## 1
Amino acid sequence: MTKRRLALVGAGMATCRLLDELLARDALVRFDISVFGEEPGGIYNRILLARVVAGEAPDAIRTKPLSWFEERGVTLHDGAAVTRLDTTRKLVLTADGAARRYDLAVVATGSQPQVPAIPGATVEGGALRPGVLVYRTMNDGLALREAARRGSSAIVLGGGLLGIEAAKALSDAGLHVTIVHAPQTLMNAQLDPLAGEMLARQIEMSGIFVRLGRTIETINGHADGGAGPSPEDEAGAASDGGPVDNVTLDDGKTLPCDLVVLACGVRPRVDVARASGLPINRGIVVNDVLATEVPGVYALGDCAEHRGNNPGLVAPAWEQAAVLADVLTAAAPQARYRGSKLYTRLKVAGLDVATMGTLAAELETDDVIEVVEQRRSAYRKLVVRDGRLVSATLVGNTRAAATLVQLFDRGDLMPADPLEALCPQVVVASATPADRTVCACNKVSEAAVCQSIDEGCDSVEAIAAATRAGTGCGSCKNELARLLARPGKKRTPLAAVG
């Protein structure tokens, strides 16, 4: 049997999961698989980048090191920036001038940071000013760590998931940190105003300052005397290159700092797709089998747009990877991706947030249940429609997250008293271990974890390798350790706590 050449363009988390799904379906029997990645060293878990900022080695978050590719016979071209696909001759063209043939190609180029046009943010040539950083890649994390060692104060522009993670990592490193966020609500894409208020309280209690409803007007440096570009300069004008000294907010106030982190969101990275002539809207347009209009070319993950949606989250990319692997290997040729139910988790020390579904009730008949604990700065909200959970928001108390994700994802009926769903020990008491979810990111049941332990997994890392539990946001690792520590084997598992 002649093997076909399958090229995966991009070496991020979507490609990582696609490789797992392909190999689980014996794809190497029919494909020679090549992966093209700009960054050296293999594939890492971007969700855990804050751990690198905090001082851990890059290998601590690496999910597929170079040895993984060598051992499995998958070719990795790392440090190889793809410039475009020649879809007529079926060639992958890279920046070093090489051209490699493919039969099928998957574009998984992910997303890239949005850099706002702030006067003083860049120097001549368009590079970011010394002391101004973005937060997306391993190099960004290492640069941020090094800057934190030299600096004493930081401004983080953006109060979304990445911004809060970066702010907490810098604060833990000993810096004086302020988050500047244009909307009045932190994580405004996921949280309503009351939930955002509770999160802001928790962040400020952790020692981080928060400025809501504010933007940065200019970034000022030593070489321009701390004054920033003149009012006559056009927006985004380059500075003369001096290190950051302070920022001026839109209310005229000046905040001193020696580090500015731009965490203003991301957008699909479609430069390769555009150069290759693939159809693009916001992202690369794909159908229900993740195929583009160009024969033999597929796309998934942050760079892909399906039915007008581009969620930019890890879980949808993983669901897409399972469908695409089914289609490419013919393991389930009728498999289709119909969209994802969205689940978001912020998990940094002392700051717990979990959300799923829509931001607010959408129908007049929706039942809304809210629990507000002012003294604990905790907030929990459920939206129930026809007896089923359609959204949930948890801030400060996320113990019920795994149970709620299970109810939300499967569309199971809620308890007669919906408040019982916030007490996971009550909800799961009558469930079997196969029904209880330990890892919400990967939908791994307690029974699967216990089976891996019974079969010889003797560490959290071994359980993760066998089941994928703990390889997403990592918030379930304490529960894995607890299950692992139980005396004896083949016993009735404990109830999951999230």
## 2
Amino acid sequence: MLAHRRLALVVLVAACLVPSAGAGRALPVGVYGDVARFDRLTGQHTDSGLAFIGWDQGRTWGKPYDYFLTTLGTRPHIALQTDRGGGGGISPRGIALGQGDAHLLGLAQAISDSGKPVLLRPLGEMNNSKNPYCAFTPQGRRRGSAYSTTWYRRAFERIYIVMHGGTAAAMSARLRALRLPAVSQDVPANPYPQLTIVWNPLAVGEPDVRGNHYRDYFPGLKYLDAVGNNYYDFSGVYSFTRTTGLYKAYPSKPFVFPEWGLALDDPGFVRAFAGFVRSHRRVSFIGFYNGRTGGRLDLGKKPRSLAAYRRLIVPLSR
């Protein structure tokens, strides 16, 4: 959702993407919040989680990589952020030029060692100005050149190549073809779908200004495994028109909803969301953002929406 949720745990059946429920297969589903409570409320079963991990977290600060990969269930989902412990962060330019390679190589090694299928969501909602790697401020002004959409695309390409691993020679050859610096060490291969890398813009930029469209940040089909969109109902006004546009823009890739949720007791939104999922066969998983117990997004406080979720969403997972 927003960049300040650094360490939120989100239950999410993730990484190894499967055909949607519309194709006659169970759809992976998940939830952020108290897993056991949500399952009791809805009758849903979830078996994996999401952590928002800052830059170098797991290597030089915070809990180690294997903590997350062990505690996030059988299909961990990691949202990779740019903030560093103690303040500050790395820019897209710094990532693209290899200044964060130690983190990428360490995380790639840990993912391989875990033996688990992993969903990795690097620098998500990049066209949301609340995130420090967005090219624009909330006032619609451009950030410094190190945060341009060009450097974002280069950073994402580097993340994709390094995280999928291989020999240093093979990765370096791909990087040099992009006019990016080489890497210095091998890392075990993490092929798709064992590792699924999701490019996750918002369907509408925040702010919605020229240059902050999702296409401005698009790294190319060779550098992503799935396309994602986060969608929330905060006001009771919603439309899936823009989401449909994003869905149709990249028809060769699976489509995912890493986060969706609602702040109102609005069963109509749940019905509309379920209808979209059922009618768009490339939707491969959905993750409900329930938030903290008793909080603004808690489905337990929304009886009509909870009933709609039980009736319309839970069957998609069976």
## 3
Amino acid sequence: MDGYHVKRNSVNNISDSQFEKVSIQVAAFYKFVPLDDLETLQREIREICKRAGLLGTVLLAHEGINGTVAGPAAGVEKLFAYFHQFAGLEDLGSKDSWCGQNPFYRMKVRLKKEIVTLGVEGVDPRREVGEYVAPEHWNDLISRPEVRLIDTRNDYEVALGTFKGAEDPQTRSFRDFPTWVETQLDADRDQPLAMFCTGGIRCEKSTAYLKELGYKNVYHLEGGILNYLEKVSVEDSLWQGDCFVFDNRVTVDHELNEGRHELCPACRMPLSEEDRESPEFEKNVSCPKCIDRLTPQRRASLEERGRQIELARARGEKHIGSR
């Protein structure tokens, strides 16, 4: 993938030749809002994205919408014009960035029970959530010694980068978070808790959950890590490492440039340069994290997929499974 990638707010400052390299808009969005007739929404969103040349994933549930799409700016504008017709979505916005090639392979619109799966009945961020903290004020909050800083993301995301001093709950999925709260979080309901995630949506659910449990001083980073990386300079930043994103860029750095990680084709875990230099790494097949877990059938399938990728590359074509 072309690694040229810039923040949205710098697009107007680049030359025409540079703009050709960053002509794909990546728009991430979510909102907790009551939605009905999900099947109709699913069908219409699919059709609009197809006509607008957009790829990505949109999740729909009765509690709201969550998605990331990528494509030409005019296509993104058409999709949001459609969203803005609906009550509760009139002000739906997005966190935007730009890249040279579409970071998605296809367009998926899925119906779900939750747009982010906590697995606890009755948690409703529309009713009550933690206090939003703007990126410009986040450093002051998390530098206070009495504040417990908690990363609500999964363990493989935390391993790639996090805030200085943040606590890793070591969860494999967001469904594990309530168990961590029950077993590891102090019973002191007055302790200040500061929470963060990639784009903000997991913190909407996690802080709503904690408020329902009676925790009083709960804060979360407004707009998530991506908003912080956009608003806070590298010189003033307390962020360390890269941020995992849920598309084929895999990670972005503090400048929101595409990172150097890749996904393992077998286990889909992010791989660093060190992982890819390991003797246990096999290109297009497996990595040190999953080499011992592959069945002969799975290995044969991945080897054939890798062969098809290389054949497509030799023909000057792009295989749908290649990065």
